[in-house]
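Contributing new complexes? Match this layout with magnesium ion.
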Amino acid sequence: MRATNLYAPTLRNTPAEAEIASHQLMYRAGLIRKSAGGMYTYLPLAWRTIRKIEQIIREEMDAAGGQEIMMPILQPSELWEESGRWGAYGAEMIRVKDRHGREFCMGPTHEEMITALVRDEVRSYKQLPLMLYQIQDKFRDERRPRFGVMRSREFIMKDLYSFDKDIAGMNESYRKMSVAYTNIFTRCGLNFRAVEADSGAIGGGHSEEFTVLAPEGESRIACCDACSYAASDEKAALRPIDAAAEEALPLEKVATPDAHTIAMLAEYLRIPVEKTIKAVAYQTEEDVLVLAFLRGDHEVNEVKLANAVGAQELRMADEAAIRAAGGCPGFMSPIGIKEGSCIVVDETAMRMHNAVSGANEQDFHYINVNPQRDFGSVTVTDIRLVAEGDLCPSCGVGHLHIGRGIEAGQIFALGTKYSEAMGATFLDESGKTQPLQMGCYGIGVGRTMAAAIEQNHDAHGIIWPRAIAPYEVVVVAVNAKVEEQLAYAEEIYEELRAAGVDVLLDDRRERAGVKFNDCDLIGYPVRIAIGPKTIENGTIEVKIRQSGELVNFARDTYLKGVKDMLAALQ
Ligand code: ATP
Ligand code: MG
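Output block (do not edit by hand):
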């Protein structure tokens, strides 16, 4: 490809809405353009990268036993009624009607459709295991589309679904996918971690997220410094912390004027925050009041809390709902809350002695609260959000450190959630009817590209990992107006092409500075400059984008030199 024919409009400035480096660079390097909120066109350079990522994904899916198919994007509502998700999916689902008034959704995911496909065809254990996948546009009307293709409303996803005859089979399919995902992100040249994850709205049991490490990533992950434990912050389990033993003193109500935050309360009573119990009030989609109680210095993990009360979503509670239940905002306690609300106490809070909590009365708190003695029948479980330095729940020796990253893929062992709801069964060896054991496995293709940029860039632009660079090498005719330079550059370009190198020729009649800046911005791994020195004495200057290293080769050694450099970039 010649740059004079390439549609890659580079820009000096970025649109104000581009908040993070990858979004800004994708705009500036001429990779994407926005067509509407959360919807983007991939321009030629980006599309080459997408195709390379897809190719790696295809190879690994096929090697693991997957077969590629293509399902329709539009999905009839009836299938989603069967699984119960037509109602449950909420506003993220884009719904449309056809001319007959029949309802459809634009597929946000395809569990229902694939389960329906397989239930009509798979009758016997002999047809199992089965793995089917597709690479296709998905639609989710995200509450907050942002960061360009990282969180968009239309995006490309690879989704594979596995079907097995028993749990051992499902676990084996899951293991194969876990290996395939590790291979994919390794081959893409990314620094990532596989972390234990919550299974969210998709449902089911075990799940892992593949998180590309990047300081601006939306996901928080916790990794142990002593063992291999790693989990998303939504999932990270925590061990309860015991408080030092104390003799329980009698419960007492004390006046605490204006102490409506934990910090003010601790200061007023001259106690450490670790002696206080705080409350956070939520409501479920069915308007049930959920009161969460934790040690004053701990944060609530809303995913754990929602799982504990069996809610899809939690929102902050209205003041009226809190008062109706006998509570007083800012001064909450489980003591005296009326029946009908869910009270969930974190395990660590439950182990405190002679603590301080609200008294459900304006400007009053209880002192000498001993939850075991005073809280009555409440739900006690781990609802705490992991914090830097927490003890590892797996080895119990190491400490957890919080990092940030981008969820590029997620795998789920689903079990029989969809097969049972939709009647997808088969006959086992003994002729008994059994539900299929399923798994589902997604990768955001566009998000993987954005994550690669987020992880690999500098002040000048993108630094593509070699395997997914739009072109591996660019040959720049430093001054393309000089006939000799252009002809020489063309010769080198043809030679590289013949040697199987993925190369672009920058033959634009622009100033050298502009072209070099574009090379750095677009981030080709290797740049070859053909300038006056080349014409003079055959010196060929080669630059590695990643290290900035410059090497001069002679005409007859450069090809081997470039190939060696590329190999070292693997
Ligand atoms: P998130 O938590 O970031 O909203 P998710 O967990 O809902 O994502 P999955 O259902 O696990 O997403 O989808 C599989 C993959 O699809 C994700 O790991 C991610 O790479 C990609 N993906 C999901 N939502 C989007 C989106 N709005 N834009 C781009 N890619 C997305
Ligand atoms: Mg996910």
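Reviewers usually confirm one structural detail per submission. For this one: Residues 209, 407, 410 surround magnesium ion (ligand 2) (CB under 6 Å).
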